[in-house]
Amino acid sequence: MDHIPVLDLNAPNVQQAFFKAYSEVGFAYLVGHGIDPAVRQALFKASKAFHALPEAIKRVVEVDRSHRGYIPMAASTDVTSTLADVTKPNQSSSFMMMREDAAEIDGVYLSGPNKWPELEGFRSALEQYNADMCTLADRMMRLALSAIDAPETAMDMFAPPTTWLRLLHYPPSLPSRPDDLYGSAPHTDFGALTFLATDDVGGLQVLTPKGDWIDVPPREDAFVVNVGDMLHRLSNGVLRSTPHRVINTSGRERYSCPFFYDPHVSATIVPLEGTGAPQFGPLNFGDFLRGELEASYDAHKPKSS
After folding, report:
1. What is the pTM (predicted TM-score) of this model?
2. Between 73 and 75, where is the model more confident?
3. What is the largest CA-CA distance in the chain?
4. Domain 6-300 classified CATH 3.40.50.12780?
């Protein structure tokens, strides 16, 4: 394998193509997705405008334990990675939008309203993109369930889904970059499906089954879509959650906007009916998320008494 496959959502054999791509590789370029290019362009314009703000202004909406808002440079470290000995923080900053709740919902982890900077057009650009991506992700998840012969009732665990829209900014890596310093350290995504939109600056690499890192060149017409750990478990290991990383050696700033589509935090993740004898035990998604975020993000670390 020296490249990732292309999946056309409008192809007549899309279900078979989905199964092949995600059971063998775990990554694909998604075309025929129906997302208006203007909506994507507006999102990147909003992202660049936000990251160009003075640090003090961005800190006004700094992320807290609801995981919404500004995540400063080097504020997260992938200490739970089993793919590398990660001791240095990721070299990126970002803005995080999640599902919009009017207020924090008692007993629902990560519920609450988003934080919005005072930046003209920013909120509307993100909300439009987020709404369109929720529709696309719902369609892709139903396709995933069909591809593994799982019942459509499994969509109940996505009612409503846990969604994350992240506006990432990576500075250029120094030529003398230490081997263990990454834009994003080697990892697998912990959720169900990830839809990545990037600018024209490369840096994403995917680990092949043979253990080689290959580049994933950006494509303006496509999303790079991959399976995460929860869909891997739901599919009883059939769909691959593939390791990937970001190293920006371009000498340019890099902007990317991943959208993550995951089960509701109350969902119990267990191999679905129709996928064979269970290879994984049950796991509560909210409990799993709490452990991941507290281990990796400064804002989530328990406060010492």
Report:
1. 0.93
2. 73
3. 59
4. no
